Amino acid sequence: MAALDDMRKLLNRHARPDMSTAIDGIRVCKFTPSGASVAGMSGTVLAVIAQGGKRLALGERLYEYRSGEYLIASADLPVTGHVLDTGDTGQPTLGFGMTLAPRALAELLLEADPRDLPATPRTTSPGIAVSTASSPLLDAIVRLLRLLEQPADRKILAPMVKREILWHLLRGEQGAAIRQLGLADSALAHINRAVRQIRENYATALRVEDLADIAGMSVSAFHRNFQTVTGMSPIQFQKRIRLQEARLLLAGRPSDITGVGLSVGYASPSQFSREYRRMFGTPPSKDIHLRTPPAELVTALP
Prior knowledge:
four-stranded antiparallel beta sheet
């Protein structure tokens, strides 16, 4: 596919260690298979693979996406990413990332004819989904990446092309899930409020009843919808946030295991070490990944 070839060349050309670009909300990623898994928060994003592949774990769910496929995260979720060895010796995995802003989606939905879009689903969709990228979507991404080399045009045209990308997503296979992200009163929006509450208060004890109130749902409906979106219970979700934050803190304070455990909400050092080992496969005192610079520890997407 010509668009994928062009996308690979552009991603290779503009890849930087910090993955940033001159276009707000756009990342260019270049990874080599290392065998290591990276834990972090997904954000609400579109991630497209142009070469190679990645595997993403969310709780007990596994997602793989390879060249020509895209992944949508419609909630900010604690995920673990792993670069796949696709057998292309020496070839890195190349990816494009774009933040999905609910406001931008809401504005587009207000202007769109509902008959041109998938119907709003009656049930909540999982927070992560994978699909094959359409030719119009890939073409728009290529045009956006080309604007990295056209500074005189970038300020005016980049917002237009980003809007076009959102439109193709809304019209695509995952359009119903994307639409929920842009609707202020959707079940996904209500669950995302609870997710933000947990993210901002992960170190304190949280009552499920209070989270259900924040989401505007009964406790049973909240449990059901939260499990659908995140793949885990609210308590499991909070635990993953705590442990991922602890790993980031330990990268800068590897000798302060007790202090880090306390700062993320663990009163018992032994419980902190036990749960850390259960999640990452090794106790914090022996985690070799803590030698990795903190910026790399949070790069689970694209």
